[in-house]
Amino acid sequence: MPHPYHHSLISVKKWGGVAADYQHIHDWFDESKAIIADFRHRALRHHAEGIFMAERIFGSTLTLSTGRVIPTRWVGEQHVRDDLGFIPSFADWVKAIRPEPWMGRTRHLEHLPPLAIADGGKP
Ligand SMILES: [Zn+2]
Fold first, then answer.
1. Considering the chain, what percentage of its residues have pLDDT values greater than 70?
2. What is the pLDDT of residues 63-113, one digit of tens each?
3. Distance from the CA of 58 to the center of ligand 1, in angstroms?
4. Does 123 reside within a domain?
5. pTM for this one?
6. Structural domains of the chain, count
């Protein structure tokens, strides 16, 4: 499993600059390793929506130390392709989740205390 630093080195080869120009974006994609240490962590951000989320967080463009400006999305697409070989949708990940009964449970509002209903369910 590539380290974010190694993803950054691939970015340098593609667009120039130094690893630090890209590190924060690649770190963000792999931060989910803190939740689950195996490859399943990728379900959180390694898909098309994750790439667009990175764009919203880091801005639509990235200015490299060389002064070159590149789309942030390019870096996200590179990261996901480095890891998976293609860019899945989140729906592709969902198809691989085995449904469990607890996932579909809903509480009926009539069982909640009256104040919780009046506040929209906020504690
Ligand atoms: Zn990754």
1. 89
2. 999 999 999 999 999 999 999 999 999 999 999 999 999 998 887 777 777
3. 17
4. no
5. 0.84
6. 1
If you measure from the C-alpha of residue 39 to the centroid of ligand 1, how many angstroms do you get, rounded to a whole number? 8
Q: Are 88 and 47 in contact (CB under 8 A)?
A: yes
Among residues 84, 63, 82, 66, which one has the least CA distance to residue 8? 82
**CA-to-CA distance for 118 and 18, rounded, in angstroms?**
54
Segments forming the whole domain that contains residue 84: 4-118
Give me ligand 1 centre to Cα 26, in Å.
7
SS3 of residue 113 by DSSP? coil
What is the distance in A from the centroid of ligand 1 to the CA of 70? 20
Query: Would you say residue 58 lies in a domain?
Result: yes
> In this structure, is residue 18 part of a structural domain?
yes
Centroid of ligand 1 to alpha carbon of 28 (angstroms): 9
